[in-house]
């Protein structure tokens, strides 16, 4: 929490002392100010890097387009591992998908999705890699491609980036077909599967038949699947009457509808299944909104809900209740990710600030303390506690925390400590 | 159209000869393959540049984050000017908004939105710039800020980038307030206004009152406004009963609802108005989906609709009908933009390919010819026509067009011409 931020918070507080919701909205806005590009060089706005691995399985070099959340570069997060989204047709969707995840996972968006590493996998021979069976040409390399993803891409990403084992697989069209292939044949590999207008018509519905069988035979406990269906019908058709049609031209949508209805009806396999039909979207325009809806479908448990009321003067919530709410929330996230997730320092700091502005210093103190406990080596956590004590006019404790922050390399705190010493 | 593309098209054609919709979907997918990053250097994925201008009005240097569509760097598009989106809180929304526009404006998405230049305007003193009146601190610099946008940013962008005068203004929260300010006080400057959960509560609803008056007094012919309303209410409230509430905590949403209902009811001002309430979104999470919905609301006339049926064997559409359809579509786009928009070469090329695959060579020929007429200096247009004649087994005309393409600097055509000469 730097001086600029304090002065903004204080000035907003003065103006709107009785109006917590408006206040917290303006305060949330201030968070935007700190949003920097992932990297800047020569004034370029950089969102990722192109890495290359040599695949023994495919016997070729393959590019990987990689986006890493900016928070990964902050020292206090050096031990954090991020969920990973593996994205087929990687180059085509990389910019929009990384932008969406970045936005949805921001503190100002209340983290309705987790921060994630995005790994886009561009194609070399798309028809070879994204088809499960041989029909003609090079088609039918799907098994080798999924071997490559499972045994080469994933180990490389998890070995070379701050990547966790919580994996999401996203594909469109033949990429969606490949996602369904992975779901039914490699359901251990990913937690989440997103199949956008998948080409289930492929090879006389080969994979559709396999998938329908798997829905009744395999247990998908802990797995989620989202399917998007575009409007690829003639103008006089709709998703009700198209199922009666028998033409080749509608086999694409009929195949997806058939699968989606089967998956919806089959409740015994524990699959967390959702699907959506997009009347206003073609096969080509549907990915963007489908990805958005998928991310909202997959992570409903990731947003910290029910906090608004705590900031009101009427709230009778105790320190313990609020802290327990936060802890239970991150325990729940941890159970989804299947590894420990500690409340993020910057998010907790933002909430603590909001409690301070709402004249609930005891809750603010507990949250700043939580950060000190979870991030004891963080200059920022000590600096924030210093700011808290300044606001409480406890100069001695403020100086202590600024000193700790300086020892840990915090540059902001030096000026603050000098200011304190001058004033007293 | 390179050899790889031909071989893919041909192989897909062989496999799916009777199945046009599936075919055209696979073909659309192939377009993805050519999607490259905006720029690559040292394997970095770059989506824009940070430019800086000195503002005499604000007496400070200001950064501008600028995304330019990749097609602008192609020689055949050297005369094209792109619509521009001016984006407040620029850095926070730049990545996601440019990603969305890039995706929605792609040929594979059937250009449901136009390709646009995005100009993000990051803040220096947000409370100063994005508030229309002085309440305390530095607030109240809105007029100077909008002077800066109108008289410094826009002329700079239109003078230094391939930017047209078709302008869209997007802002969130206090940025949304600023967008409403621009709509009512500078409706000439922008064609489209997007106000996301705008802070109309500001200064005792100062701008809300001005805006409601303007709705009845000003003619907004040719102007569009989209307003998004987030759910900022307590759990026991909804947008119906909240209007009865009188607390400060709901003044934010009540102000936006009041404005939206007034704008909806007032039909005499010719404003093209749309609004949406997002029950599942907070003030902070709403921008992404609101931007998406706004872009779909603003440009319903930009997608080339009704083309699917032309590719079916049953279609009786003549060459003239199809060409007239394309021409009328771009005439309509031109009337919206208020300047001439020529059908984009690559998009027409993609459609022509699809007609060729659908065994409608006469329509394909007319579309390749359209490109030659509109882009007579384009190596690609000649190369594509060469490919067409190869497919028609007219070796002499194919060689002519490959030769033209080579003269215009087309590197792909050289190999093709040599191949022709070897075979004959």
Automatic annotation (TrEMBL), chains A, B:
GO terms for molecular function: hydrolase activity, acting on ester bonds. PROSITE patterns: PROKAR_LIPOPROTEIN (PS51257). It holds the Pfam family Esterase. SUPFAM superfamilies: alpha/beta-Hydrolases. InterPro entries: AB_hydrolase_fold, Esterase-like, Siderophore_Hydrolase_D. Keywords: Hydrolase. Belongs to the esterase D family. This is Esterase. It comes from SAR86 cluster bacterium.
């Amino acid at each position: 929490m730097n001086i600029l931020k304090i002065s903004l918070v204080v000035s907003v507080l003065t103006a709107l002392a009785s109006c917590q919701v408006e206040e917290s909205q303006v305060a949330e806005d201030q968070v935007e100010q700190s949003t920097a590009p992932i990297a800047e060089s020569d004034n370029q706005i950089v969102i990722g890097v192109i890495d290359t691995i040599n695949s023994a399985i495919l016997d070729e070099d393959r590019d990987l387009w990689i986006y890493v959340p900016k928070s990964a570069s902050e020292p206090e997060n050096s031990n954090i591992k991020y969920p990973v989204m593996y994205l087929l047709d990687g180059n085509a969707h990389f910019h929009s998908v990384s932008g969406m995840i970045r936005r949805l996972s921001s503190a100002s968006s209340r983290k309705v999705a987790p921060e994630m590493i995005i790994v886009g996998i561009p194609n070399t021979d798309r028809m070879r890699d994204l088809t499960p069976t041989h029909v003609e040409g090079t088609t039918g390399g799907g098994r080798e491609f999924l071997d490559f993803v499972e045994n080469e891409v994933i180990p490389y990403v998890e070995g070379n980036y701050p990547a966790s084992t919580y994996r999401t697989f996203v594909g469109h069209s033949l990429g969606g077909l490949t996602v369904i292939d992975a779901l039914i044949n490699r359901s251990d590999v990913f937690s989440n599967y997103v199949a956008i207008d998948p080409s289930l018509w492929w090879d006389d519905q080969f994979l559709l038949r396999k998938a329908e069988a798997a829905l009744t035979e395999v247990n998908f406990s802990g797995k989620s699947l989202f399917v998007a269906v575009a409007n690829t019908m003639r103008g006089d058709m709709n998703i009700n009457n198209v199922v009666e049609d028998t033409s080749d031209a509608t086999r694409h949508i009929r195949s997806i509808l058939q699968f989606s209805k089967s998956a919806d009806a089959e409740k015994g396999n524990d699959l967390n299944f959702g699907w959506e039909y997009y009347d206003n979207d073609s096969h080509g325009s549907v990915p963007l909104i489908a990805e958005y809806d998928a991310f909202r479908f997959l992570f409903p448990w990731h947003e910290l809900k029910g906090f608004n009321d705590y900031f009101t003067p009427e709230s009778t919530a105790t320190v313990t209740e609020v802290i327990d709410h936060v802890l239970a929330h991150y325990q729940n996230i941890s159970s989804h990710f299947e590894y420990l997730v500690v409340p993020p320092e910057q998010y907790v700091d933002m909430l603590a600030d909001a409690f301070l502005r709402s004249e609930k210093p005891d809750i603010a103190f507990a949250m700043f303390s939580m950060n000190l406990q979870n991030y004891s080596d963080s200059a920022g956590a000590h600096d924030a506690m210093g700011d808290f004590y300044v606001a409480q006019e406890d100069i001695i404790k403020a100086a202590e925390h600024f000193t700790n922050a300086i020892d840990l390399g915090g540059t902001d705190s030096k000026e603050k400590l000098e200011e304190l010493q001058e004033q007293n």
